[in-house]
Write a structure and sequence with these properties.
Shape: elongated
Strand content: 5-15%
Structural class: alpha+beta
Number of strands: 6
Distance between the termini: 106 Å
Helix content: 40-55%
Radius of gyration: 25 Å
Order of helices and strands: HHEEEHEEHHHEH
Oligomer: single chain
Length: about 210
């Protein structure tokens, strides 16, 4: 008993010396942090939705087009296949923010895009997390932030605990939602210019050939 009490007293003294807080205040703050984290986590990924299948499906209606514009989203498709978009830019992703009821609600974490349509009550218009729909939200999730400036995929400056929180979110999304694509960089103007120059050169060569 004496040894146990001595160890307890030593631990309490160390907590006070290290944090400047009384043991009661320290453990109260820790408990509150755990409760807040678990509450927010549960709100992002609703437990009651875990076993619900995806509600939106897609089929490719333009087999000659490799872009994402060739998909037709059908809420009543009996095959119930998950949406697969492939490569999507951040600008294209914003079209899937829930404003169009005929399109799925998508959200990206670390460049991977997930269909969160089964949690429309959270991510759909008017939902508490609608600001994340159609966006890459890695930084906001890592920081547990709702600030508009944090809703992006920039991980620069995040410390290990924050990256750990982000990994926890990613694991939850992998478990709950279907991965439907990945983010790719926006095409640059240089690429457009080079493509246009190549097309014009080809047309000129064809014109010269016909003239001969």
């Amino acid at each position: 008993m004496g040894i146990g009490m001595g160890l307890y007293t030593t631990v309490m003294d160390e907590i006070t010396g290290y944090t400047g807080l009384s043991p009661t205040a320290f453990f109260t703050i820790v408990a509150l942090m755990v409760v807040v984290y678990q509450t927010v986590s549960g709100m992002f990924v609703a437990p009651e939705d875990f076993n619900k299948p995806p509600i939106v499906t897609a089929r490719n209606i333009n087999t000659n087009n490799n872009s994402n514009n060739g998909f037709d989203f059908n809420l009543n498709d009996s095959t119930n296949k998950p949406v697969q978009l492939g490569d999507v830019t951040e600008q294209q992703l914003r079209a899937y923010n829930g404003s169009d009821p005929n399109k799925p609600i998508l959200m990206a974490i670390r460049g991977q895009i997930y269909d969160v349509s089964s949690s429309r009550n959270f991510y759909g218009p008017g939902g508490p997390y609608a600001m994340f729909a159609g966006r890459e939200a890695s930084r906001a999730l890592a920081l547990l932030s709702f600030k508009p400036q944090d809703i992006n995929g920039n991980l620069e400056g995040l410390d290990e605990p924050e990256l750990g929180i982000l990994q926890d979110w990613e694991d939850k999304f992998v478990e709950k939602y279907v991965k439907v694509g990945q983010l790719v960089p926006e095409p640059t103007r240089i690429e457009h210019t080079e493509s246009r120059d190549t097309t014009e050169e080809s047309q000129n060569q064809q014109g010269n050939g016909e003239a001969q």
